[in-house]
Amino acid sequence: MFKYKSCAKLNSYLNITAKLKNGYHELSTHFQLLDLFDEIKFTENETFSFDSNIKLSYKNNSVLNAINWFNTKFNYNQNFRVSLKKNIPIGGGLGGGSSNCATTLKFLCDYHSIDRGSLDFNEICFALGADVPLFLYGKSTFAEGCGQIFTKDYYYNSKYLLIMPNISIATKQLFESSHLQISNKLDKSQNTFLNVITKESKKFSDFISLLYLNLPKNTQNKMKLSGTGSTLFIENPNDNEIQLIMGKNENNFRVFQVKGLEYYH
User: Fold this and answer.
1) pLDDT value at residue 188
2) What's the pTM value of the predicted model, to 2 decimals?
């Protein structure tokens, strides 16, 4: 049996800087890796099988997507029992699916003695997802392009309070929204999608209004969105802020306290 951990990330900021002719968007962001992990076990077997502690559709199963891509790329057929334990929420902007995909590719490269460094980030970005190269790279970093061009390694030695509402909205809908602002003028204090998801999702708009109710203005201003949402976070929250947020939880959101990671391979 081979055991791998698959870490989460958040976007310290996220700006959309251009829309390409192929429909993809260019961005500027900082990816911060987190000590929140899924776990994947690979066991040699006579046939292939997959199981998870939560139900995943075939289309949204990034582990299977990684295996199928790898088999086509390197002409292999995998016989493993793959067991996935999900701890990172799905659809929250924390990169769980992309991390699972990258972790599976890491294992397959290790198992078949293929140099991980031979994997092409551009190819993987467009074939498997824009966040997958980050988790193959394995470092907190600033990024450009579609998220696959890493410009400067940097991590924040910070603690984070993650606030995860039970709200999911299609990433495609947010990228196609008329509310999406595209600008090459960077604002590293903002996530472009906070305004977009608030306008596109009444559930999220109602949620954030209730969350902000009776919160100090300073705490509201510290709240940021990760990825395209719906996870919000506060960097280095004080005890009062943690208690205030915890006190608002009525089973409509989850709260995690995590730390930033410099790297995770």
Assistant:
1) 95
2) 0.96
